[in-house]
Amino acid sequence: MLAAMTAFASMSIILRHVTQDVHPFEVAFFRSFLGLIILLPWIVKAGGTRMLRTRRLGLFTLRGAFNVTSMLAWFTAVTMMPLADLTALSFTAPLWATLFAALVLHEVVRARRWSATAIGFLGALIILRPGFSDMNMGALLVLLSSATWAMTTIVIRVLTRTEESSTIVIWQALMMAILSLPPALLVWQWPTLEAFLWLCLLSGIATFGHMCHVRACSMQEVAALQPLEFAKLPVVALLAFLIYEEIPSIWVWVGAVIIFASGTYISYREARLKKPAVPAPESATENRAAAA
Predict the structure, then answer these.
(1) Who's near 236: CB < 8 A, 6+ residues apart?
(2) Rounded CA gap, 103 and 131, in Å?
(3) What are phi and psi of 237, to 5 degrees?
(4) Closest alpha carbon to 179 in 152, 205, 158
(5) In sequence order, what are the residues at sequence separation of 6 or more whose Cβ sits closer than 8 angstroms to the Cβ of residue 21?
(6) Beta bridge mates, 130
């Protein structure tokens, strides 16, 4: 998980560099297309076209649209605001997911999680400080990115009821490559060789980060890993200071801690509520029933 967070932090630094020469929409396409190329050997090994069989093409398209919207908003925001501020606001994704789970999936969200969600959004307001600092369009794009990313998690919850994880991953890569192309064509300019090499590095690091993240989640409960995600902020802040001389304000750290603590508590509560209560068996027959 720490390797994944370091990779994702490095992505933000590379994004800031490469978007100086290449439009963010075009960067998003190359990130998706090159990521698909990197995944091709795994796709072939996983079963190739067999894994593409699905009756949920509409949901895969919807997920791809949310994913691409989130990526376009994020990549554009990187060019507009300090990277530490951007990273701190990105921690609102679990808060949006809780809200959408209640509205879209009609999940029961009780007072504790609603309270944590409200406190988390208060942390976002501390970072934004409306009325005390100019509202940056980049900040609004980060919130849009986090909200649409949260919607992808909602769609994934529905897809996992009928689809294999390999099918979900393959369709995600395909849809992102396909749906990110039209916006890129609107601003298309062929990147220089140097810019293309940076784009390849970006896709490689992003793929590595996602692989580490998936591997970590397979080894430990997500709720237990959640606190480690905060490591992304100090890594980004350090790299942004060393390379771009960006210094985050104290309000960014305060707001980030509040947002992250709220999101971590929400994940912890969800994990606890999903665990079935197993009473202690009182007889051999009950022991066999519990085992079954």
Answers:
(1) 9, 12, 13, 83, 84, 87
(2) 30
(3) -60, -40
(4) 152
(5) 191, 192, 195
(6) 133
Distance of CA 104 to the CA centre of its chain: 19
Residue 273: how many CB atoms within 10 A of its CB? 12
Quote the distance between the C-alpha of residue 236 and its chain's center.
Answer: 16
pLDDT in tens, 58-89: 888 998 999 999 999 999 999 998 888 888 88
Q: In this structure, what token pair is assigned to residue 65?
A: 């649209």
Q: How far apart are CA 251 and CA 146, in angstroms?
A: 20
Question: On the CB side of 243, how many CA atoms lie within 13 Å of its CA?
Answer: 16
Cα(122)–Cα(101) distance, rounded to whole angstroms?
Answer: 20
The Cα–Cα gap between 126 and 134 comes to: 13
Residue showing tokens 């020469």: 21
Give the start-to-end residue ranges of the domains of the chain: 2-274
- What span, in angstroms and rounded, lies between the C-alpha atoms of 204 and 7? 10
DSSP secondary structure, 103-144, as one string: HHS-----HHHHHHHHHHHHHHHHHH-BTTBPPPHHHHHHHH
Among 164-173, 186-195, 254-263, the range with the most confident prediction by mean pLDDT is 186-195
pLDDT tens digits for range 85-114:
888 888 888 888 888 888 887 877 788 888
d(CA 24, CA 77): 9
